[in-house]
Each structure stands twice: as structure tokens, then as C-alpha cells.
Amino acid sequence: MQRDGSYCISDFELLTAALSAASWRALGGSIRLITDSVAYAFLEQNGLIPLWDGGVTTELDDMPEEIRPDTFWAGGKLFALSKVPAPCFMIDTDFIPWHLPEISGIDLAVIHREDIQPDIYPPKEFFVFDTPFSKNWNWEALPCNTAFCYFGTEHFKQLYTDTALRLMRCARGHDELCYMVFAEQRLLSMCAESAGVTIHSFSDLDELFSFEQRSYTHLWGYKQVLHENPAERERFCRSCARRLMRQFPDTGEICKTSPILKQYFA
To answer: Quick check: 139 and 82 in contact, CB under 8 A?
Structure first.
């Protein structure tokens, strides 16, 4: 949101989302964006709806009111996942897959596992929920980063999303980080282990933190740099525009006519 209350998405986030969608389509996939009516209107106004060949839909208009957006700021991602039948991939808009991973025989895959850092993943005593935790959950299971993940079976996908949505509805504590990453990332690993589902990792932190991200690019914490550094933001956006025109010209043509993006294609 901008200061006047109007809706806006950063230009670099839109260009990253365009690259993500274009690369996924080039790999042979179809991609759909699930959002709400406010974001849909913004994308339509800026001529960006065609970026997603599977359409842009507004299921997030039906997000349960009990789920606090200031605590569960990515709760819409899990609600959207609950509406999509497996097998399916879930891709964050700031994540670009440059190659199609092998998924044969895999029930669950995530981009990577994470260490249990107490300031991010505190013990269960930290949390306040109206519903009790399952006694079958292993709090030592390494959390899963879900910027890019694959669900091979509907049964487990629905088990995970049903559990996450129930917990988010029943949360009585508040925190700007720990509750959300618990519901999204730690809960996934605990549900998988209790259900006997093996977790496959597409990559690891060493590869994702390397200078040359050949298989995947995740904008991640770099977004803060782009928000705070106008020169770097300009450089990044122009680099994205050049790559779109070189590698995905159809998508580039869509973006270059958008009022919010056309300056980077000059």
C-alpha cells in the first residue's frame, strides 16, 4: 500500500514475477496467479494479466477473517494452495526457476531445508493457540523453505493446508515473523514426518547464496537493498528488462507497454 491507501507493487517485484512466469512457461509449464480483487485491478490497469497463461484468479477474496494479516502475512499463500489440486508446484513471485527439476516418484519437494534458529523458530512454549499441538510432531525436524515446492499427492497437500489454516485461525499470540514461518515452513516438515512423507530438496543454501544462481534465483532479502538503494533498483530493473527482451520477448513486449514498467525498456 502507498501512503494514500492505494495499492501498489514495486517495479522490481513485478519484473521478477514476469521472469518467473516466463521461465516456467518456457520449461513447459502453465502458471496461474492467485490473488485478490484489489491486486487483480492493479495488474489489469497496468496491462499485466497476460503474464500468467493459466489466468489470474481472486480466491484470496475468501480468506477467513479470523486469520490476522499482520501475523500471517503469507497466509494467503497457504489458502491459495488449498484451492489447487495436486500434483502441483507452488512458486513465490520473487523466485525464478531456470530449469525443471526431476519429480518422478516424489511426494513432496521444497527448495531447501533450514536450520532451527531460535530467534526464527522458537520452541513450542513460545506459541499461544486455542487448539493443542499434535503429540506426533517432531520439533527437531528441520523446517522447509517453500519459495518453490512440489506436492505430489492431494491427500498430504490437503492435510498440511487444513492443519495450517486451522492453526492460523486459532492463534492468540502475535509476532511479525515466528508465527508465520511456523505455520508455513516448520509445520510442513512436522506434518510430513508424522505422515511418513519423505521430503526432497531441490537445492541448498550454499547454491542459493552463490553469486551465479544457475538453477534458481530467489530475490529474498535482496528486496530490502532494492527498496533502499534507488541506483541499484534502476540497474536491477533494466537488467530484468534486457533479459526479458532477449530470452522471453513475448513477455517483454507485455511489460514494455505497462505504465509502471515501460521506463526500463527505453
So the answer is: no
- Residue 259 identity: P
Cα separation, 145 vs 148, whole angstroms: 8
Backbone angles phi, psi at 97, to 5 degrees: -85, 125
| Amino acid making up residue 2 | Q
* H runs (alpha helix) in the chain: 11-26, 37-45, 75-82, 154-170, 178-181, 187-195, 205-208, 222-228, 230-247, 249-256
Task: Give residue 266's pLDDT band: very low, low, confident or very high (50, 70, 90).
Answer: confident
pLDDT, one tens digit per residue, over 221-258 is 899 999 999 999 999 999 999 999 999 999 999 999 99
- Asked if 126 contacts 120 with a C-beta cutoff of 8 angstroms, the reply is no
Burial class (CB in 10 A: 0-12, 13-18, 19+), 228: exposed
